[in-house]
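User: My collaborator sent over this chain with a note saying "see what the structure looks like." That's all I know about it. Can you take a look?
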Amino acid sequence: MSETKVALVIGAGDATGGAIAKRFAKEGFTAVCVRRNADKLIPLVDEIEAAGGKAVPFGCDARKEEQVAELIENIENNIGPIEVMVFNIGANVPSSILDETARKYFKVWEMGCFSGFLCGREVALRMRDRGQGTIIYTGATSSTRGAANFGAFAGSKHALRALAQSMGRELGPLGIHVGHVIVDGAIDTEFIKTMFPERYALKEDDGILNPDHIADNYWHLHNQPRDAWTFELDLRPWSEKW
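Assistant: Without extra context I'll predict from the sequence alone. Here is the result:
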């Protein structure tokens, strides 16, 4: 078990999260893929294994402290030490602040930030004892700029970025690399293809983000020597305004 390298991807969806899991599996890691519904992970796990990699699916509601603690304990005891944790949960539900409900605003924060705290804390406790590890949080345009009709999402993403900054400053001296990746632009997903066909058409000119290329940057962050660690990366297509 000690020779197993684990890359834990919380929010291993069909685009960015899945691409990150595949990237680390390609490099010899066991990709532990997590979504609320484990059944949705079957195609990703099958793809990783068909390519010669190792993947293990888990269902977990990352908003629930007891489920997160049980997940991390299970992985550490039965699969291997978590060398990398990527938190990639999204909670983008646009709404006018005039129509926003307290329940939905709270749920967006709970998914996008609170769950990031729970996952980060549990993994950091193990990494601290080993004196090494990588924790990467996925941010978005709303991590630094609150657009109209995105009050809940922007609040969540601003808070997640602040959490990552605080963790980076505390855990860096302990040998744990904490990073935050701002993905600023449309990603090549079925959602963008269906809902924003004009934006998706920009794919032919490299105008939207390729999930595999996003994943390459996560792999790069993990492999940085500790004398030159990056905390924050901004990823956007060459044609995207910023």
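A starting point for your reply to your collaborator: The first helix runs from residue 16 to 26.
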